[in-house]
Structure formats: structure tokens, C-alpha cells
Design brief:
Helix content of chain A: 25-40%
Protein name (chains A, B): Thiolase family protein
Domain Thiolase C-terminal (chains A, B): 240-381
Number of helices of chain A: 15
Keywords (chains A, B): Isoprene biosynthesis
CATH topology of the largest domain in chain A: Peroxisomal Thiolase, Chain A, domain 1
Number of domains of chain A: 2
Oligomer: homodimer
GO molecular function (chains A, B): acyltransferase activity, transferring groups other than amino-acyl groups
Largest interface: A-B, 59 and 59 residues
Strand order of the largest sheet of chain A: 3-2-4-7-1-8-11-10-9
Distance between the termini of chain A: 18 Å
Domain Thiolase N-terminal (chains A, B): 4-222
Chain lengths: 384, 384
């Protein structure tokens, strides 16, 4: 089977942005095409990862708007929605478009515009992905995170500080990401003394509400060198689901979708956890970084916190995680987040990560929808 | 490349339905699996074509809900949105999932729940797909249809009655479709004397607001015989876009997306217009049936109306169109419509269309998003 290459990447400034979703999508799309030196009229397919432009802005049909704004007609287009993992699902859709032979050149743009709504309105839209039977009892995504964090800390005798250190690390990394929403360090005390959101988790254990967009450009590996000297290949990719009703899961510390999608991606790539040099994990809540580290085999169950405590996941550690700053400091514009994870791994693998650069040949992204409801794991390698 | 087979099909009763979108999706999904004798836990991928469950019902994450309701975890899932052509885009996504090797068994379920909202609310959601620059001047999709119909009738010297005969024909076909929303014949006078909506088009030139769901099951052709004695193969499929701003198009009677997607599907299949025995076209407005007939090469520009006048597109004519009753009488639950087109062609090609059965080896579906903004054309053939 033809392998799929990524030959261009871009992301907009994340944060509080003016304008509408279609402007953010076009900004990242145009920058990505320029990055690869490709004209929009060369595109065969164009996918947009976006959860809720209709709910946030009353604008649907954003895929057609983007094709129009890029002047890419008659390129095929489709919106990919998998809630907060829409970006990862977009990578999978773009991969399928190339691997199936349907497209020779596919642009993926992920984006979301949220900050013009109040935090309450924005979180209400996000909460609409949960099961009504849980939501009506008030068990929102942050509540699940709080319950899971308490369970994890007690069961595995982990210190509360280890969770806070995820936030401290990711904020530190974000300082060197010019597109991050928050480019400021936070110290342990600030995290530990921030307002309680869902006990034991506090404000700094949560990612912010964010506007932003990110893009990747895909082609068959056989023609990648025509576009780029340095490029990245998708070595493995898989997606998986877990129950919609979260309380039906046997063990709240095991994210089934992470485990299953990780196994699929490892199998396809021929790599294992120890081959991965750098990873972008979905740290919407600090506890999720632990659960993904364990689900993907980077740590045994109940032991991820020790790696964080020991600094092994720092940028200069043995196994850097979230060198981009993660969702925590970079921000979490739903449909963009999974694509932006891919942008970071792409930049790390082609050596364009600037002050965030680590030594890496193989990178992994894990993008999580809901509370692990849908998960995509992608393994990329630098072209040799 | 491995060809993709369709081994099962189902649709729910279309019309005004009780319950929520997740129940409608599950109803069609379960029926489709039963049709093929497949258990849900065999599924690799599960796609949901749906435009606006968040806007209509305040429920997002319906893909995860459906995986849960079918007990299909850890099957991969994703929502496919291309507004009113989401169903056709779902067929393309399912095709890519199989052709790329990502999945060996993919279920596609398309559905929409709309009738619990007022007609005004429902049409507002649909209108949100149009370009704001046109929408704010009141040019909605029905307006475009009225303007285009007037232009077509005058330019090609076509009688108003020819448009009405599309409605008469499709209503006549719908009588024999047990799942159609309207199973009643309408005569020419009724159409021509119904209330004006967008002059010269009247109430019976438009499809209704509808709830419903439809499903198709896909696998590689190499294993199709293990599941089904009779099955269908996707011979050609392609999608294309036209401008988001409708008034920027050079000729309002030429739907660029129809032409481009049709050419792509013909080229892939090796078939031409004269090889097609039966077609499901997107008759959201009667005028669209003419424009698609011409865009797909079934008639020269400005001459489709003559085929309708002559009865050639009747069920017992040379080239039957919309044997299902079309969107016109069957109904148009946005995300379901393109899938239901596929269900009709599947049933025609495997000989399960009952009283609607025509003699056909090759069938075509054309699913249109917006006013031709996004179009998918699929050509299917009976397995030999």
C-alpha cells in the first residue's frame, strides 16, 4: 500500500481572535499551502475538522466556504466531526483519501471559533456531546476529570503535586511556542492554589477556551520529494471508541479508546512505545496526560505520575511530552487541536521546532474526543 | 485496487417521527446489520452522515452515541457533514475506508431529526449553509430555485408544466415506497395551483421537512460473497464543489459540481451516461432534476424537460429517474437523503425493489449539498 506523506504544516495564533471561523480556516489553509509551495487549484480533496460552527456561530457549510475562499473549486470537501478529536479524525480522513487513491493532494484544516461566546455557552456546546443520562445529573467532562483524578491519586498513592507538574511543564513548553494562547510559566504554588473547579482539580488543571486553526498537507510518499526536501510519513494510524456512558467503564483509569487506537497504530507502524521519541497528548485536563501515557504503554498503569515527578517528560528529559505546550498552554480550539498536535510533531521531525526542538525520528499524537469517547492515535516518522 | 461492495441496506420510515436522532440512527443501523446477517462487533468503522443534530436537538457526539447503542465499541467512528449531501459524502467516506485498507467492514448510517422544530426554525438551520452575503439579502435556497427555474423556462422555451410533471412522476413513484413520507399521487392541476413559494415554483415543487434514517454496509469485493449472494459494487464515485456564492457562477443552469463529480465517477467506472439504467437525483426542488439530468449527460443542456414531458423518465420509461419517489415524495432528512438514494439503487440492482422494480444493471446517485455547492455522484453496478 502507498504510504502517506505530510509535506506542509501551519497553525494560526491560538487565543482570542477576531473574525469568523471561515477567516481562521482560510488563514491556516493559505499558510500551509505556502509552506509547501502548492497552489490551491492543485488540491484534490480538502477536509475541515470542526465540531460546532453551527452552534457557535450559526454558520454551517464551512467546508464550502473554505473551498471558495481558497479558490480551490472543484476540489472535493467534507467536514469531519468527532467532537474534540475532530482534528485527529481529520488526519485519518486525509490519510484514507490518499491511501485509497481518491486524492493525490489533500489539505486538512482544523479550526474552531469559541471565545465570542461566554464560557458558559461554550461549555454548554461541549457538554452536548455527553450522554444525556449523565449530563442531566450534572456530570460534565470536568466532573469526570475530577472524579477520575481523585480515584487515581488515592488508588496509586500519587501526590497531588504530580498532576500540577503536568500543568507547570506544559506551560513552560508553551513559552517557546509563538502561537500558544498562554506564553507564561506558572509555578507549582499557583496551580495548587488556583480556584477549585472539580475537586481535586483546579483552574490550572484545565485547558482554556480558544480560537484557532491549524493545517496539514498530505500526498502519496512516492511524490513527496517533488514538493519538499524534508517531509514526514504517517507510519501508523488508528481510531477507536469507548462507551458513550462513561460510568459503564470497568476501570476509570483505563481509557479503552487510547489503548485500542494505540495498539492499532503501533501494529501498523511496526513501532512500539519505546520507539517513540516525542509525543503530543490530549491534556484537556492534567489527569488525561497520565491516562494516555499509561494507555499508550509509555508507563505502567498507576506509574505515569512518577515519570512526570522525575522530569522525564520535560523537554530535556528522556521522553518529552507536549513540547508544543499542549492543550493546556497552547489552547484547545476543538477542531484545530488534533491538527495542531500533528503540526508540532511534523515540525519536530523535520527540524523546524526552533527553541522547542528535541532529537526525534518518531513522534506520536493522541487526540481524545469527549472523555475518551473517541480517540485517534497517529505515529509519524521523519522521511529518510 | 480492491473494489468496494455494498452488502446490506435499510431505511426507516421517513416522515414525522417520534424520538431522537440517536434512536433513528440505531433503527436503520440495526436493520442494515440484520439485512446482511452481520453482528455489530464485527464492524471496523462506522460513519454517521448528519448535518445538524447539534442545531436541531442540542445533541452532538451522535457518532459515539450510535457506536454505544449498537454495542459496537471499539469500532472507529466519525460524523460526515457536507450539509444536504452529507449522505453521499458518507458513501465516499465509507468507500475510502475500505479502499484504503483501513476497514474491512464499514457501516454508514445517515439521519436527521427535524420535524420537532417549526418549519421556520428548520429552514433557518438549512439556510445557515448559504453565503452570508446572499443570505442577508434574503436569497435563500428556495429563492435560488425560483430564479433558476424562471431563467430555465424562458431561455429554453420549456413549459411550466414540465417542472410540475417532475413532481407528479415522483409522487406516483412514492406511492409504491412503503417508507416514503407522502404515498399519494398528485395531479398536474394540484401542483400548478398550489401556493407560490418562489415564483414560478409552488409548494409541490419543493421537498418536505422530514425525519428519517438510512444505512448501507460496505466491505471489500473480495469477501462480499461471504456475506451476501447478491450484492452491489461501487463502480465509480467522485465529489466536487462549486462556488459558495451562487451568483458568481457563469451559467445558472449549469451545476459545476454535478458536471465535475459526474465526469469523475464516469471515468473511474468506465461507464458513460448511456450505460446508466436507473438514477436517483436530488430533487429537493423540481428544477434540480432537470439540471442534474443535463449535468450528468442524460440530456443536452436545455432539453431535460423534453424527456420528462415524453414520459421517458417514468418508471416504465426508457430511463427511470427517482423510482424511490425522490426527495419530493420520500422526504428529505438531510443526512439520510444521500444514503437513501444508495439504498434505492442497491435494491434496484439486487432485485429487491418490489413494485418499484425496474430492469437495471447499472445505477447512479447524485446527492447535492446547498444549491450545488457540494455534489457527490456514485455509480453502482450489480455484481456478476
Amino acid at each position: 500500500m502507498e504510504r502517506v506523506a505530510i509535506i506542509g504544516a501551519s497553525m494560526t495564533q491560538f487565543g482570542q481572535r477576531e473574525g469568523w471561523i471561515r477567516e481562521l480556516l482560510a488563514e491556516a489553509g493559505i499558510a500551509c499551502l505556502e509552506d509547501a509551495g502548492v497552489d490551491a487549484d492543485e488540491l484534490d480533496h480538502l477536509y475541515v475538522s470542526n465540531m460546532a460552527s453551527g452552534e457557535f456561530e450559526g454558520q454551517t457549510g464551512v467546508v464550502n466556504a473554505l473551498v471558495h475562499d481558497l479558490d480551490a473549486m472543484p476540489a472535493y470537501t467534507q467536514r469531519v466531526d468527532q467532537t474534540s478529536s475532530s482534528g485527529g479524525a481529520g488526519i485519518y480522513a486525509a490519510w484514507q483519501s490518499i491511501a485509497s487513491g481518491a486524492s493525490e493532494l489533500t489539505l486538512l484544516v482544523g479550526g474552531e471559533k469559541m471565545t465570542h461566546r461566554t464560557t458558559g455557552e461554550a461549555t454548554d456546546v461541549i457538554a452536548s456531546l455527553t450522554h444525556p443520562a449523565e449530563y442531566k445529573h450534572g456530570v460534565t467532562l470536568p466532573s469526570f476529570a475530577g472524579l477520575t483524578a481523585r480515584h487515581y491519586l488515592e488508588r496509586f498513592d500519587a501526590p497531588r503535586e504530580s498532576l500540577a507538574k503536568v500543568a507547570v511543564k506544559n506551560h513552560r513548553n508553551g513559552v517557546d511556542n509563538p502561537n500558544a494562547q498562554f506564553r507564561k510559566e506558572v509555578d507549582l504554588e499557583t496551580v495548587l492554589e488556583s480556584p477549585i473547579v472539580a475537586d481535586p482539580l483546579r483552574l490550572y488543571d484545565f485547558c482554556p477556551i480558544t480560537d484557532g486553526s491549524a493545517a496539514l498537507l498530505f500526498c502519496p510518499e512516492s511524490v513527496a520529494r517533488e514538493y519538499a526536501d524534508e517531509y514526514v510519513v504517517i507510519a501508523g494510524i488508528d481510531g477507536a471508541t469507548d462507551t458513550h456512558v462513561v460510568h459503564e467503564r470497568d476501570d476509570p483509569t483505563i481509557m479503552g479508546g487510547v489503548v485500542e487506537s494505540g495498539e492499532g497504530a503501533y501494529e501498523m507502524s511496526g513501532y512500539g512505545p519505546s520507539d517513540v521519541d516525542v509525543a503530543e497528548l490530549h491534556d484537556m485536563f492534567t489527569i488525561l496526560e497520565f491516562l494516555q501515557m499509561e494507555g499508550l504503554g509509555f508507563a505502567e498503569q498507576g506509574e505515569a505520575w512518577e515519570l512526570v515527578e522525575d522530569g522525564k517528560t520535560d523537554r530535556d528529559g528522556e521522553f518529552p511530552i507536549n513540547t508544543s505546550g499542549g492543550l493546556k498552554s497552547k489552547g484547545h480550539p476543538l477542531g484545530a487541536s488534533g491538527v495542531a498536535q500533528g503540526v508540532e510533531i511534523y515540525e519536530q521531525l523535520v527540524g523546524e521546532a526552533g527553541p522547542r526542538q528535541v532529537d526525534a525520528e518518531v513522534g506520536l499524537c493522541c487526540n481524545v474526543g469527549g472523555f475518551g469517547n473517541c480517540v485517534i492515535t497517529t505515529i509519524m516518522e521523519a522521511a529518510r
